[in-house]
Every structure is written in structure tokens, then in C-alpha cells.
């Protein structure tokens, strides 16, 4: 056989081998693409390079080089074909690899976040015992659920801040008045894990997500008739926020969560005393043990980044004990007292926390109409409490706090049960707080904000504004923030103040951006949960309803987004129904939402949609609709989506690195 024939046969074998390798690599690439798109679980092990591993790529390159040098007439054309095929197929391989990374990271992100939260906490308290703490949190979770069903906070009151205690007390009173029992049975806790840790000079805060299942429904107290809910077990999740002072160390014994003084172990008696009767330690100060300062449904929880607050820096320099936790707790007490006063038709609940002028002005709203009917709101919930700004000057300092909340319009007609509307209404109100200029915050009583600031005694019922124990006037603002007025955000009295605060906030944000410049669209490390799931889906639904309807594809997309953010199908149905009933869903959400329709909203929607690595046709349609409503061009929307996909990929790689590092 001639040398030329031998060479041709060898070249043919090389070509066949090379083409086979190319075919295998293409098939492997397609398989990897299918795995990523299908959302299969992440194994937790290492991941080879896309295309089936580096070995195949290296061998193909080696064979190409040999073919070019030994058989150029065959090698060069084959190499050109390979380059063309690879360049066309590489985009798919790379896309599938990015998808795979994003999906894999999403499955382990909660573990990484929990680990990061605990790492930060252990820097403050090296002896912190995760298992012991979470075990205590689970027991407290069970106590709260039991107290809710029994409509009695006795077993759980020891570890609740005044704001939480006030909320629960008023909500339980409301249920008793209606003759309603919120029944819960068969509670099973699946998991409890930290999701975020925050710290400043006054408090450490650890947020714990608790996933559980139970049978939960509301029934009529007398007849036992089912009013709402289901007698089938349903899963639910809540985020509990625990506060403690930075200097506190981990307890190796029982404490507030078990109903005992964390200092001496003496049982905490009822009556909301602020000090232990045996050792005189402050109980709910966070000095010795964790205090529960908030319970939020997972679909409503958000970890919004702190904003630059006008006047805060200067105010804190003058009042070192001032802290956001106290303001939130104090305003929460004011909010629930105001609702209680409206529901009962009497001003007594407000007397100790609101100025006399405000109390007298409220009386006109409590009067029955000509038929004897009174109107108020029930089944209320707070979406957010945000300090907008502080103005410090003689004779009184003022704090402007926005409360975003919802409630069911209700009417009480004489000799008839309370009637309620089928859907809640959302509000944005500004609570204007006043305090004597120069007064200082008592840090130790930050979480006992409804107690007397002079003697620490718990408030007693009654229409007087003095402390029943020491006689100190509690609503003059001499020592503590008091409520001066409550205004709608669009009210003329507050509009100029809000405009001034917003202008100052923009200036502060601009200064911060100049000192730490970042890409205007890119947001590396952006927190997916900085907008609550409820607000995110409300915006998506409103935008979809802009043309008057939601088609099947859009509904499929919204269902997917809702599932990712812990929103139950029945809750989503209620939300859609409520927005459909408004004349303009988009305008209504703009007026009542705690977030604004801007690029940040688009970024959040895009990140939720991209969590599985891909965008469906309906998701792209929704994002384009939202983008157009906020004035973005098609090019800007496309750029944002590419940026967020890139950011998610970079974050995914870092998340997986941290996960593997353990």
C-alpha cells in the first residue's frame, strides 16, 4: 500500500475521531443545558467546566494541532469547521453553565446566609450556642401559637417587647369582642435558621426564619362554625426578630423565653413589671437575654438596607442612647393604641402616649352617626415603620415616622355584630412625634416603651394621663416621645415637611454615592429580600392589570413569583381581586406601597424571575410592561436584565465558594 493511501487513511481516522469527539462534546453540552433548565438539585460537590470536563477539550485541541501539522489539507478545513461549531455552540454551553450556577447557589443560599449571620454574631459573642438558641426559639414559637389559640398571653409575655405585646393584646381583645377563636393544632416545626444579623452600638438583632406546618382556622366561639382557614394541615413560615445588647453573653441556662429572670432565675410574674422582684434586674432591656421585638410573615418580611435619614446623625450626637428599635417599638404601641381607641370609641387608650390636644381632637371621630353606627378598622396589619427624618430645635424636637398598614373597613350598628368589608384597604400615614428638646433616650427601657419613664411601672388602664404609681405626667413629652398628630402622606400639613426630608435624603444619598461610587445599574451583593414578597407581587399584579386583565401566561408567571416568595394561592387570589376592584391598580399601588416604581423595583422583579436561571416569554413580557410604566426604554430594560443575570452569576459563584468552604 502506498504511503499516500496510508496517510489518507490515518487522516480519515483522525478526522472521524475528531468529529466523534465534537459530537460527544455537543451532546454533553446539550445535556448540561437540560439539567440547568430543568432546575435539578445541586449535589453539593464540585462542578467541572462546561462541556463535560477539561479532559475532552484538551484532547480535541491536541488532535486538531496534530491534524494541522501532519495533514494540513484535512486539518485546516476541519479546524475551521470546529471553530465555527464551537463559536455557535459555546453561547449555549456558557448560558447553561451560568444557569446551573445560579440554580445551584439558590438552593444553598439559605445555608450560606445562616452561616454568615452566625459568624457575625459569634464575633460579638464567641460563646454563642446556635443549637441551644434555636431550641429556645422553637419553644417560644410553640408558646406564642398556644397563647394565640387560648387568647391568653400569660405564658409568653415575659420575652415580648412592649410593641409586640401591645399588638397581640389588642388583636386578641378584638377577637374576643367578635367571638372568634383562631384555632391551631398539630404544630410541627420543620426548621429554624438565622437569615440575617444586624448590629450597632446599642443592639444586636438576629432574624430567625421558622418553617412549620399546622391546622389553622378561625371559628365562631359559640357555634364552632368554621369562619376561615382549613382543617387540613398547611405549611407556613415566619421571621422572628430577637434583640439583645451587644455586651450580653450567651446564657447557658433558662431565661426570658422560659418565663424566668435571666439574671437570678426567679419566675417572671404577670403584670409586665420591668424589673425582677428578687434581683431588681431589668427584664426586657436586652441586658441579659434576647427579647422578641417582631414577628413577620415570611411573605411580608424584608431586609431593606438602611437609608440616610435627615437629621439623624446630628441628633444621635446629642442623644447617644437614641436607637431605631425604640422608635419602632414606641410607634407600634401608638399605632395599636390608636386602633383600639377607634374600635372602642373612647380616647382612654391614647391618654398616656399622645398629647392632650390630639386626644381631644380624636373624640369627634369616635362619635356614632345619626343611625348610631360607628366605623373603624379591624384585622389590621403593619407593613412597615420607617423614620423619615428628625428636626431638633427649641422647644421640642420632632420625629416623622411613616407607617404603612392595612385594615378591613368595619361598622358597628347597635344590637348587631360587627360587619366587615371583604378586602382590606392600604394606608400610608405619617406619625408626628414630639419630645422636649434636650431630653435623652433611656437605652435600658427601649423595649419597654409603654412603661412609665420615671419609675418603670407598667401602664394601667384609665382615662388619666398620669402614672398610677408615681403620678408623673406621661404624655407631655418631657422624657419620652409622644404622639402629636397622624396625617395622610398626601395631607397639605405634611407635604412640605416630606418634600424637605426627601430633598435632604437625596443629598445625603448623593454624598454617600460620591464617597463610594458604584455602577448605576449593576448591584453586586444586592439583597433579594430588601423588598417584601407582598409588595413585589402587588406591583407585578398591578402592572399586569394596567390593560384591564391578566392572561393565562401572565397568571402562570405571577403564580411562579408568588410561590418563590411564600405567598399562598388564596392570598394571591385576594390580592388580585382587591386590585381589580380599584379604578386604577397602578395608581392605587403607587399611593399605598412602601416602595416606589423605579429601577430598584425592576431589579427585584428581574432577580426573582431569573432565580431559576432563565426568563420565560411571560416573564419577559411582564418585565417589559413594568419597565415601560416607569419610563425605561427597551434598550435600558435589556441592559438591566443582562446586568442582573451577570450579578446573579457572580453572586452565585461566591455563594457556592462559601458553601464549599464550610
3D architecture notes:
About 7% of the residues have low confidence. It is built from 16 helices and 9 strands. It is an alpha+beta fold and 662 residues long.
**N-to-C CA distance:** 63 Å
Count of distinct structural domains: 4
Give the amount of beta strand, in percent: 15-25%
Shape: globular
Q: Would you tell me which CATH topology of the largest domain applies?
A: Nuclear Transport Factor 2, Chain: A
Provide the succession of SSEs. Answer: HHHHHEEEEHHHEEEEEHHHHHHHH
Low confidence ranges: 22-57, 516-526
Please tell me how large the radius of gyration is: 30 Å
Mean pLDDT: 78
Total number of helices: 16
- Based on secondary structure, the structural category is alpha+beta
Q: Helix share of residues?
A: 40-55%
Task: Describe this protein with a few key phrases.
alpha+beta; Nuclear Transport Factor 2, Chain: A; five-stranded antiparallel beta sheet; globular
Topology overview:
Layout: H1 3-38, H2 54-70, H3 72-124, H4 130-150, H5 162-178, E1 180-199, E2 204-220, E3 226-244, E4 291-297, H6 312-318, H7 324-344, H8 356-366, E5 374-391, E6 396-412, E7 419-420, E8 425-436, E9 482-488, H9 492-515, H10 533-544, H11 552-564, H12 569-580, H13 585-592, H14 599-609, H15 617-629, H16 634-661
Antiparallel strand pairs: 1-2, 2-3, 3-4, 5-6, 6-7, 6-8, 8-9
Amino acid at each position: 500500500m502506498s504511503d499516500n493511501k496510508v496517510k489518507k487513511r490515518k487522516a480519515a481516522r483522525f478526522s472521524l475521531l475528531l468529529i466523534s469527539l465534537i459530537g460527544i462534546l455537543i451532546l454533553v453540552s446539550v445535556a448540561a443545558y437540560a439539567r440547568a433548565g430543568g432546575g435539578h438539585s445541586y449535589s453539593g460537590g464540585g462542578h467541572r467546566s462546561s462541556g463535560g470536563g477539561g479532559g475532552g477539550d484538551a484532547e480535541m485541541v491536541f488532535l486538531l494541532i496534530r491534524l494541522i501539522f501532519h495533514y494540513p489539507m484535512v486539518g485546516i478545513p476541519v479546524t475551521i469547521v470546529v471553530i465555527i461549531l464551537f463559536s455557535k455552540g459555546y453561547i449555549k454551553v456558557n448560558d447553561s453553565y451560568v444557569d446551573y450556577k445560579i440554580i445551584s447557589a439558590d438552593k444553598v443560599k439559605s445555608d450560606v446566609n445562616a452561616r454568615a449571620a452566625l459568624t457575625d454574631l459569634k464575633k460579638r459573642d464567641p460563646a454563642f450556642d446556635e443549637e441551644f438558641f434555636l431550641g429556645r426559639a422553637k419553644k417560644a414559637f410553640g408558646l406564642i401559637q398556644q397563647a394565640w389559640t387560648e387568647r391568653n398571653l400569660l405564658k409568653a409575655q415575659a420575652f415580648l417587647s412592649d410593641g409586640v405585646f401591645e399588638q397581640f393584646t389588642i388583636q386578641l381583645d378584638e377577637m374576643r369582642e367578635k367571638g372568634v377563636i383562631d384555632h391551631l393544632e398539630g404544630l410541627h416545626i420543620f426548621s429554624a435558621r438565622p437569615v440575617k444579623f444586624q448590629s450597632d452600638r446599642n443592639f444586636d438583632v438576629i432574624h430567625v426564619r421558622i418553617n412549620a406546618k399546622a391546622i389553622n382556622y378561625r371559628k365562631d366561639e359559640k357555634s364552632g362554625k368554621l369562619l376561615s382557614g382549613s382543617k387540613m394541615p398547611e405549611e407556613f413560615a415566619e421571621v422572628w426578630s430577637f434583640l439583645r445588647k451587644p455586651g450580653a453573653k450567651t446564657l447557658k441556662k433558662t431565661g426570658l423565653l422560659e418565663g424566668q429572670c435571666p439574671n437570678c432565675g426567679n419566675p417572671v410574674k404577670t403584670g409586665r413589671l420591668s424589673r425582677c422582684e428578687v434581683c431588681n434586674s431589668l427584664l426586657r432591656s436586652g441586658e441579659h437575654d434576647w427579647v422578641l421585638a417582631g414577628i413577620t410573615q415570611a411573605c411580608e418580611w424584608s431586609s431593606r438596607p438602611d437609608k440616610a435619614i435627615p437629621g439623624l446623625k446630628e441628633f444621635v450626637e446629642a442623644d447617644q442612647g437614641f436607637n431605631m428599635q425604640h422608635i419602632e417599638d414606641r410607634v407600634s404601641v401608638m399605632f395599636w393604641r390608636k386602633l383600639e381607641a377607634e374600635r372602642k370609641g373612647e380616647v382612654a387608650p391614647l391618654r398616656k402616649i399622645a398629647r392632650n390636644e390630639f386626644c381631644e381632637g380624636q373624640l369627634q371621630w369616635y362619635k356614632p352617626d345619626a343611625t348610631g353606627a360607628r366605623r373603624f378598622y379591624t384585622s389590621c396589619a403593619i407593613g412597615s415603620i420607617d423614620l423619615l427624618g428628625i428636626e431638633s430645635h427649641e422647644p421640642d424636637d420632632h420625629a416623622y415616622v411613616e407607617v404603612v398598614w392595612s385594615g378591613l373597613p368595619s361598622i358597628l350598628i347597635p344590637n348587631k355584630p360587627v360587619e366587615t368589608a371583604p378586602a382590606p384597604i392600604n394606608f400610608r400615614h405619617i406619625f408626628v412625634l414630639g419630645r422636649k428638646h434636650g431630653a435623652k433616650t433611656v437605652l435600658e427601657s427601649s423595649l419597654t416603651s409603654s412603661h412609665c419613664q420615671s419609675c418603670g411601672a407598667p401602664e394601667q388602664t384609665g382615662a388619666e394621663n398620669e402614672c398610677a404609681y408615681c403620678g408623673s405626667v406621661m404624655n407631655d413629652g418631657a422624657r419620652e416621645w409622644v404622639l402629636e398628630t397622624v396625617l395622610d402622606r398626601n395631607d397639605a400639613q405634611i407635604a412640605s415637611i416630606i418634600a424637605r426630608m426627601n430633598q435632604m435624603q437625596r443629598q445625603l444619598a448623593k454624598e454617600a454615592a460620591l464617597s463610594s461610587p458604584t455602577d448605576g445599574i449593576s448591584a453586586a451583593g444586592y439583597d433579594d429580600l430588601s423588598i417584601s414578597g407582598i409588595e413585589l407581587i402587588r406591583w407585578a399584579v398591578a402592572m399586569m392589570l394596567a390593560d384591564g386583565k391578566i392572561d393565562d401566561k401572565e397568571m402562570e408567571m405571577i403564580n411562579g413569583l408568588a410561590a418563590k416568595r411564600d405567598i399562598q394561592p388564596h392570598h394571591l387570589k385576594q390580592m388580585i381581586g382587591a386590585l381589580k376592584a380599584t379604578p386604577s391598580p397602578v395608581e392605587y399601588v403607587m399611593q399605598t406601597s412602601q416602595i416606589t416604581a423605579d429601577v430598584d423595583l425592576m431589579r427585584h422583579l428581574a432577580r426573582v424571575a431569573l432565580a431559576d436561571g432563565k426568563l420565560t416569554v411571560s416573564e419577559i413580557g411582564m418585565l417589559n410592561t413594568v419597565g415601560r410604566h416607569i419610563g425605561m426604554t427597551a434598550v435600558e430594560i435589556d441592559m438591566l436584565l443582562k446586568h442582573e443575570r451577570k450579578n446573579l452569576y457572580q453572586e452565585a459563584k461566591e455563594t457556592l465558594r462559601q458553601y464549599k468552604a464550610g
